[in-house]
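The following block was generated as part of the benchmark described in Methods. Ligand: oxa(dethia)-CoA.
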Amino acid sequence: MGSRIVSSGSYLPARCLTNADLEKVVDTSDEWIVRRTGIRTRYHLAEGEEPAVMGIEAGKRALAQSDASPESVDLLIAATNFPDMICPGSAPFIAAGLGFDQTPFFDLKAGCSGFVYGLAVADGLISSGMYKRVLLIGHEALSRVTDWSDRKTCVLFGDGAGAVLLEPAPAGTGVLGSALYGDNSKAFLLHLPAGGTKSPASHSTVDERGHYLRMEGAGVFRSAVPMMERATRGALVAASLTLADVDWLIPHQANLRIIDSLIKRLKFDRERVVVNLDRVANTSTASIPIALDEALRQGRIVAGSVVVLTAFGAGATYGAVVIRT
Ligand code: UT7
């Protein structure tokens, strides 16, 4: 037995920020942002808006699409790097908003690869017979950990959530193969230094701006392309398929130049790559499920398509999953 995605949903907050809006905040330009990243707009939570609302709305849409009641879900996995609260995370708040009663839940933290990791974990749990219906949500409120004085990072990120509902399916029909990797030597390429148990919140961590995301952008860029290439090829081997069998590629939406380099290495057709980062920017764990949901709802990806989802992120983690929709 294996598993398959039976429905999906996504949610973006209402507040849209253009590059011109960011020109008023830091020393940047629309021209620089578009040329170096491909990003034109991003969506951010309004001040005081609850982050969990994004995961709740995405989850509701996924459940509604397959007429699944909250009671019928056996497990909720919330993939997120910046939970609503460090303890107890995001999952309990999302579970409450979805009307779950005794359904188990947990947060999964694996950098921007969190959704891909979560899909492999959910597939493993369903395949083992431990759970039947698993709701997997990628949920991220990056605007809340963005350093608005750092032009190197603040232009890149958006908020949002995407969800998929997984159910048992005959092996070889839904999730066809996966490959997960880690490179702990790159743990500091992308990190948020303070607020954890290593460096608890204090006046000095606040003064040092330690509660904001820090990134060595060029280092991340250099690692991202070979990582996603290796993961894509690894997952295809696990699925006993080749690139020629793939209908669609959905890479983590971090930077258009990273995506273009990946496609070049893979020699994959640009027309069959889902890209929405121009509109939604980098939403970390939410990026792949939002792109997948949008492509499914637009009818670009149709039933029976073979799709590779591949990501890299803080940790460094990377991985890919091959699915048949
Ligand atoms: O989910 C994973 C998360 N992160 C990523 O995927 C990020 C991966 N990395 C990247 O996407 C790119 O490295 C960036 C978009 C972050 C930066 O692009 P880059 O081509 O690597 O630029 P750079 O960092 O080498 O900076 C080039 C110049 C610098 O100026 P000087 O020193 O040459 O005078 C920067 O200060 O561009 C400057 N710069 C900016 N200028 C205008 C950096 N950020 C900006 C900005 N606006 N927002």
